[in-house]
Design brief:
Blueprint: E1 5-7, H1 12-20, E2 24-26, H2 32-37, E3 45-48, E4 58-61, E5 64-68, H3 73-78, H4 80-85, H5 87-94, H6 99-104, H7 107-113, H8 120-126, E6 130-133, E7 137-139, H9 140-143, E8 158-164, E9 168-175, E10 182-190, E11 195-200, E12 207-208, H10 210-218, H11 243-262
Parallel strand pairs: 1-3, 2-3
Antiparallel strand pairs: 4-5, 5-8, 6-7, 6-8, 9-10, 10-11, 11-12
Length: 263
Amino acid sequence: MYAFQYERPANLADALKAVASGGQALAGGQTLIAALKQRLQQPEKLVDLGQVADLKGICMEGNHVVIGAMTRHQDVANNADVRKHIPALAALADGIGDRQVRAMGTLGGSVANNDPAACYPSAVLALGATIHTNRRKIAADDFFQGLYATALEPGELIQSIAFPTPKRAAYAKFKQAASRFALVGVFVADTGSGVRVAVTGAGNGVFRHAGLEAALSKNFSAQAVDAVTVDASNLNSDIHASAEYRAHLIKVQTQRAVAQALG
């Protein structure tokens, strides 16, 4: 580690002021603390958001489940509204990392970091959620921009994310055994006006698959996935899995997610 200024604001106004002045926001710290230890990031000022109550909590607003950015994974998994209206999101949160990670990691931190193998971005994208920041509202389709890249601008902070309630949805993840990140994860959401399919872990960031969406919008069944071709040319290939294997897993996990959604 190295010397830096540490601030722990007690309210949102002070947090925004500290971030606007160049401070690096610290949410759950599951990624940032490791990066600091390895000196991959060296901010001069660290702004701990842990005491900002306005960034925590879950509530219903119409047909949307609204989750504060600093809400912990385990709180999402255990919340009655999430379990009732979007049980797939609760199940996703309950499957992130291990118990210690779920106790500390936050929704906003995960989405802002946009790790290419993180689970939450697939839910945000598949459900067509809206990211609320201190400056604007950003549609999920406009938010994720590739490897660790998002539409967030300097000084912009996620305050909450609004998830519309789907007709049915499910998430299926093939875990990388050591990290428990998604080797391939697929979130399928039937919105009532069409099916959205978001894939994580397979490329340089979360993405939607148009072929799977078209097939499932016509016939929401596991069998409909069989006829879809998944192109491996732009997928990851590494020591854990080849691009071709990931393409195969996308179809398998999609079928599993559809089966779960159908009950």
